[in-house]
């Protein structure tokens, strides 16, 4: 079982930043032709799930780790609080239209897991109903996999200290101030509750489609680990161009 308090939030001291950044550049060079192969072959699709606490770096990951991909073959969907219309349907109703077609890469900035996290922390739904959602999500992801979708799930693991620094930075930087939301500080007060729910998610929705816990205090290391996993996964598909 994953215990987040025991998981690292930064690179080991022995890791050289310059060499990692150089390796990341090479990974980006590999990623573009692999994405082209994915699109040409049209046997698989790739779903990237990004989860993490506020200020964990989900936006920055999308900006940097996928920067070498062709925008025509990649889509991003950010899942925020459900709208009034979305609340009238089952919780996956708003998710299905954004699952990737064969050949495409889809990124979820937050995801269907928010419909377990928020109701659990804020006690918005019956515990038995929330428990059933874990099983529903497992079936949902299995269904996507059966249709050729490869699912990569990343949890961006930051420390409380770095989260506090990043939230405060949003107030000081004119280019980031628009991102500041007073609710971020309030939610930071629920840190332990969120960690507990995430650990349960990793346990119940992890065996078949495992989560990768990414140390995310340092952006350069975060981007490297995610790019490395994507390249490894795409290479593992052993794709070929159609004749």
Folded structure, characterized:
The protein is an alpha/beta fold. The protein has 8 helices and 5 strands. Helix content is 47%, strand content 13%. The longest helix is centred in the first third of the chain and has 25 residues, at 17-41. The chain has helices at residues 17-41, 58-65, 114-121, 127-146, 160-172, 182-188, 191-204, 219-236; strands spanning 45-52, 74-78, 105-109, 149-157, 211-215. Helix 3 (114-121) crosses helix 7.
Identify low-pLDDT runs: none
Main structural class: alpha/beta
**Beta-strand residue fraction:** 5-15%
Largest sheet data: 5 strands, parallel
CATH H level: which superfamily?
A: P-loop containing nucleotide triphosphate hydrolases
Question: What is the CATH C-level name?
Answer: Alpha Beta
Q: What is the mean pLDDT? A: 95
Calculate the terminal CA-CA distance, rounded to whole Å.
46 Å
Number of strands: 5
Number of domains: 1
How are helices and strands ordered from N to C?
HEHEEHHEHHHEH
Helix content: 40-55%
Radius of gyration: 18 Å
Looking across the biggest beta sheet, what order are the strands in?
A: 2-3-1-4-5
CATH topology description: Rossmann fold
Shape: globular
Number of distinct helices:
8
For the record, the CATH architecture stands as 3-Layer(aba) Sandwich
What is the strand and helix layout of this fold?
Blueprint: H1 17-41, E1 45-52, H2 58-65, E2 74-78, E3 105-109, H3 114-121, H4 127-146, E4 149-157, H5 160-172, H6 182-188, H7 191-204, E5 211-215, H8 219-236
Parallel strand pairs: 1-3, 1-4, 2-3, 4-5
Helix pairs in contact: 1-8, 2-8, 3-4, 3-7
């Amino acid at each position: 079982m994953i215990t987040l308090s025991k998981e690292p939030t930064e690179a080991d001291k022995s890791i050289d930043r310059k060499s990692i950044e150089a390796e990341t550049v090479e990974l980006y060079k590999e990623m573009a032709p692999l994405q082209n192969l994915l699109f040409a072959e049209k046997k698989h699709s790739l779903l990237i799930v990004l989860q993490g606490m506020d200020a964990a770096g989900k936006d920055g990951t999308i900006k940097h780790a996928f920067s070498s991909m062709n925008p025509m073959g990649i889509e991003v969907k950010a899942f925020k609080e459900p709208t009034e219309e979305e609340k009238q349907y089952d919780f996956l109703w708003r998710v299905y239209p954004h699952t990737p077609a064969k050949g495409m890469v889809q990124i979820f900035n937050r995801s269907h897991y928010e419909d377990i996290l928020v109701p659990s922390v804020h006690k918005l739904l019956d515990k038995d109903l929330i428990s059933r959602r874990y099983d529903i999500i497992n079936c949902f992801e299995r269904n996507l996999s059966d249709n050729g979708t490869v699912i990569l799930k990343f949890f961006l693991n930051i420390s409380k200290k770095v989260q506090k620094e990043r939230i405060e930075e949003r107030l000081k930087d004119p280019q980031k101030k628009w991102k500041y939301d007073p609710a971020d500080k309030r939610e930071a007060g629920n840190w332990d509750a969120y960690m507990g729910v995430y650990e349960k998610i990793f346990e119940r929705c992890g065996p078949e489609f495992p989560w990768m816990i990414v140390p995310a205090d340092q952006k350069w290391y975060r981007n490297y680990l995610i790019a490395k996993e994507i390249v490894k996964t795409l290479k593992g598909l052993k794709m070929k161009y159609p004749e």
